Amino acid sequence: MAFWLRELLLSMSLEPIVKTSGKTGLHVFVPIRRTIDFDAARHVSELVGRHLMRLHPKDITLEWSVPKRTGKIFMDYNMNVRGKTLNVAYSPRGEPGAPVSMPLTWEELAGAHPLDFRITNAAQRLSETGDRWRDALSRKQSLESALKLVKA
Question: I need a labelling partner for 15 at 20 to 30 A (CA). Which of 4, 7, 124, 147 fits?
Answer without folding.
Answer: 124
